[in-house]
Amino acid sequence: MINRRERMSRRLERVSLSGLLTFLLLYSLPLETVAETSEARGMPSTSVLNPAAQLWRDVRQRDGSNVGNTQVKGVETGVLINANGDRWGKFRMEQLIPIGGTVLVSAVLLLGIFYMLRGKVAIEGGPSDRKLFRYTTYERTIHWFLASVFLFLAITGMILLFGRSVLIPVIGKEAFSVLASLSKEGHDLVGPLFIIAVVLMFIQFVKRNIYQKGDLSWLLRGGGIIGGKHVPSNFFNMGEKSMFWMLILVGSVIIASGLMLLFPIFGQGREWMGLAHVGHTLGAMLMVTVILGHIYIGSVGMEGALEGMTTGYCDLNWGKEHHDHWASELIEKGETLTNEEVEKLKMGDSSTTHGGESATTG
Ligand code: HEM
């Protein structure tokens, strides 16, 4: 006879054994099966699926369409991987950087070759003992402000674009990371100054950069730099005027796209940001290439060109040879100055009768 106590203990053993078996069975089943089984039986599911499983599966198997979703509302908050972002990254690495680099290096080489073949364009009549007033202190300040800001942005921008391929092999990753961070912060902080510089330049110089009769023939005759013959021109020649309008038009594209990249708070998604980046970089490269030519002619390429932009006065013969319509007008008005008069004016002696800060006819 099995007594009552024994029966109780056998029942307990059976219960714990079946509990253990159920636990082991459940533990060995995949979560989804447990959830499906419980749902199929109409029982509430207690398991929690890994919410990222499907997402990472989509990331791995992505087929050129956007990946991701969320309940958070905002611009592209539901897009983890933007398909155009992949295309943009590829374009930047495989086209923009190598082609842009080739264009810039070629421009420098061409200027070097041109200098070796043509040499410095001299003042044919030689430097004279008289000068013409060309730029006010304010105009020169705006020019050098724009030039400093532009050169800083061009150098930091190029470090960001070409640095990984060009600088890491030379200075190493640690030094490059410091340089890249400084360039990025510097580029972002100084960028807005470019807007001020371009607006000031536009206001001050626009009148003298409106195309006039005779400008086209200057262009057709290569500005006189090819062939060596002087071509008549006004205060600014066709080349300078075209550079000015390039600065304003391409500068506006660079400014607008720069603002879109700097302040991503106006509802622009990554597609617009990618486009802004490409527009910003192409515009900047075009401008750097043109400005390289401008710097060349304004410095080593032409005798007497820099004087006006550094002192405010240019040589009379330089004026006659490169901007003869403007020079003739000042000569007719009797507004030429001797070197001594210019020195006195620079020392702040206002007794000199003509020339000075107001003469900017064109
Ligand atoms: C260190 C570099 C630079 C040098 C040596 C230089 C030199 C000169 C010189 C000599 C002139 C006067 C030309 C003349 O009197 O006919 C001039 C004018 C001018 N420069 Fe520069 N420059 C430099 C950088 C820049 C930069 C970076 C920009 C713009 C991004 C710029 C934009 C201008 C403009 C707009 C004018 C007036 C021309 C016009 O309005 O048509 N310069 N520069």
How would you characterize the overall build of this protein?
With 362 residues, this protein is mainly alpha-helical. The chain has a domain at 87-136 and 206-346: Transmembrane di-heme cytochromes, Chain C (Fumarate Reductase Cytochrome B subunit, Up-down Bundle). Helix content is 66%, strand content 3%. The protein has 13 helices and 3 strands, in the order H-H-H-H-E-H-H-H-H-H-H-E-H-H-E-H. The protein has helices at residues 4-28, 31-40, 53-60, 83-118, 137-166, 168-205, 215-220, 238-262, 270-298, 305-311, 316-322, 324-332, 339-346, and strands at residues 130-133, 313-315, 336-338. Strands 2-1-3 form a 3-stranded antiparallel beta sheet. Helix 4 (83-118) runs parallel beside helix 9 (270-298), helix 5 (137-166) packs antiparallel against helix 6 (168-205) and helix 6 packs across helix 8 (238-262). It is rod-shaped. It starts with a helix and ends in a 16-residue tail after the last helix. The relative contact order is 0.11. Residues 31-35 and 358-362 have low confidence and may be disordered. Bound molecules: protoporphyrin IX containing FE (HEM). Protoporphyrin IX containing FE (HEM) binds at residues 134, 143, 146-147, 150-151, 201, 205, 209, 236, 240-241, 243-244, 247, 291, 294-295, 298-299, 305-306, 308-309.
